[in-house]
Design goal:
Layout (H helix, E strand, L loop, with lengths): L1 H11 L4 H16 L8 E7 L4 E9 L11 E7 L6 E7 L3 E3 L4 H9 L9
Antiparallel strand pairs: 1-2, 1-5, 2-3, 3-4
Length: 119
């Protein structure tokens, strides 16, 4: 544990590496750490005309620190069979909350929709 703490401290204080390391660390803690962030599953309307929607998770409801006008939220959309995804800035009226377990929604997305949903 002391070695891990020393390594963590060194990586957190190394220019350039710090940015990448802290981003990866935050991303991983969003899944399993005390700061779980993928706990607000939503359905995002990508194309209203054809009613095309995508599942994702709200990661930030207030984007004022980025100087993004009120009325938009940050939604992370994971890719199937991957730990990568896309961050979308979505108008609030294109977001519908999903009343399902965030774990089940993530499992459904990552499996490409082929997994069974547990009740």
């Amino acid at each position: 544990r002391p070695m891990f703490s020393m390594l963590d401290h060194a990586l957190e204080n190394t220019p350039v590496v710090k940015t990448i390391y802290s981003s990866i660390k935050d991303f991983l803690s969003a899944f399993v750490g005390s700061k779980k962030r993928f706990n607000k599953p939503v359905l995002v309307t990508i194309n209203k005309e054809n009613n095309i929607q995508q599942l994702g998770f709200i990661t930030q409801e207030d984007l004022s620190e980025l100087k993004i006008a009120e009325g938009s939220m940050a939604v992370y959309v994971p890719l199937s069979y991957s730990f990568s995804g896309n961050l979308l800035i979505v108008p609030v009226d294109h977001i519908t909350r999903v009343e399902a377990s965030s774990t089940e929604v993530m499992k459904f997305i990552v499996s490409g929709g082929v997994t069974d949903i547990d009740d």
